Amino acid sequence: MDIRVVACDIFGTTVDWYTGVADQVAQLLPNVDAGDFAERWRDRYIPSMNRVRSGERDWAYLDTLHRESLDDLLRELDVEADDETRDRLVLAWHRLPAWPDSVSGLARLRAKHVTATLSNGGVALLTHLVKAAALPFDCVLSAELAHAYKPDAAVYQTAAALLDVQPEQILMVAAHKWDLVGARKAGLRTAFLSRPLEKGPNKQADQAADVDCDLYADSFLNLAAQLE
Fold first, then answer.
1. Could you say which residues form the signal peptide (predicted)?
2. Domains along the chain?
């Protein structure tokens, strides 16, 4: 494989969204089950993007979709929260802890490859998240740049065009089967990165046995060793 770019999914693959969101929910909504709230909010993630992908609603970046899902969840649970609290909850997705191997593993990958985010998060969200978690990416690429959401081919193809490489020169790294299937259909190389706690302690994460891709790794450090 002639890999020039290592493009990484962020939520769940590079950072621990469950712990990060649940911890901030616990601070802002002390009377709710923070872990359950985080899971329910995340469950609305793909359906909200599918409404954009299907044309049911106009394009909106992820912060807007997160706010709409949050408002819906608060109504469902009959939880009161003022606008300032809701705004702060949406910004919780901008500040999430990196998995223990992410910083060192990405630094090792960056020594020989361009490293880039390739996430459904918006540009501002990803910039804030990368800075807060000190993640060593060379650039921030977002679905927002294509006005589409993964797994639409336009997101992966836009990344290749912006970095002036062929699709097959990008290795898409993700802990999610659906992301890797989309990347593979768009012509990218793919690597499954196992994250057993990606969906939190109560749900089973995607398994390597269920994913057809070029490489399999259990950490960014392991992936870097394979590419070396």
1. none
2. 5-16+96-227 (3.40.50.1000), 17-94 (1.10.150.240)
